[in-house]
Amino acid sequence: MPPLRLLAPLLVAGLTVADNITATVDLGVSTGEPSHWASGFIYGIPDTPNQIADHWYTHIGFRYGRAGGAQLNAPARGWIWGLQEYKGRLESTLSNYRTCRKYGADFILLPHDIWGTDHVNSSTVWPGDNGDWSDYDYFVRTLMTDLKINDALEGLVWDIWNEPDISIFWVRDQQQWIDLYIRTHKIIR
Question: How far apart are CA 186 and CA 176, in angstroms?
Fold first, then answer.
């Protein structure tokens, strides 16, 4: 991949770019207190509570985490492998949720991971296969009930299905994903 090129010098928030290979940061220019907008974890919060010391979260201005138990093997492969396998991923998800909320961070729920479509099961049952949505609808309702029972609604953000435009995350046709999105949205509402 060729290096990124800038077409003209640029001055933004104390960053001066003099040419296409040099950047200078003026530490004497203050733009205010950091807001930590992107301070979070897309994966990687341990399922063991308090395994990481508080200061590692508080010092970064922790704002969000996202998870759904992806890439966990048996007994936590997800909904499509049975109720016990679902519970394993749910417990992982709830652990990550609780860690996020402990520090006031929002939690982005990845229900497709709890469903069980990830690297450990590349040829699985997908929501809506053969026009049958009954198991998926039951999954979404069960997940919603479990989140409510576990007081895991505050600060919760649903990512209905992560990156369906990338073939490893959605291996069915676009219309099936659109149908999934619409029906999931209606159930959640």
Answer: 15
- CA 46 from chain centre, in angstroms, equals 15
Terminal alpha carbon distance of the chain: 44
Candidates 130, 149, 128, 124; CA nearest to 139 is 128
- Two tokens, residue 76: 């936590």
Residue 103 Cα distances to 41, 55, 186, angstroms: 13, 10, 31
Give the residue carrying structure tokens 């990156």: 163
Tens-binned pLDDT, residue by residue, of the chain (189 aa): 333 333 344 444 454 545 567 777 788 888 888 888 889 999 889 999 889 999 999 999 999 999 998 889 889 999 999 999 999 999 999 999 999 999 999 999 999 999 998 766 556 789 999 999 999 999 999 999 999 999 999 999 999 998 888 877 888 999 999 999 999 999 999
> Alpha helices of the chain — where are they, by DSSP H?
54-58, 83-102, 111-115, 134-149, 174-188
Could you count the other beta carbons within 10 Å of the beta carbon of residue 97? Answer: 26
pTM of the model: 0.81
| Size (the chain), residues | 189
Characterize the bridge pairing of strands 15-17 and 10-12: antiparallel
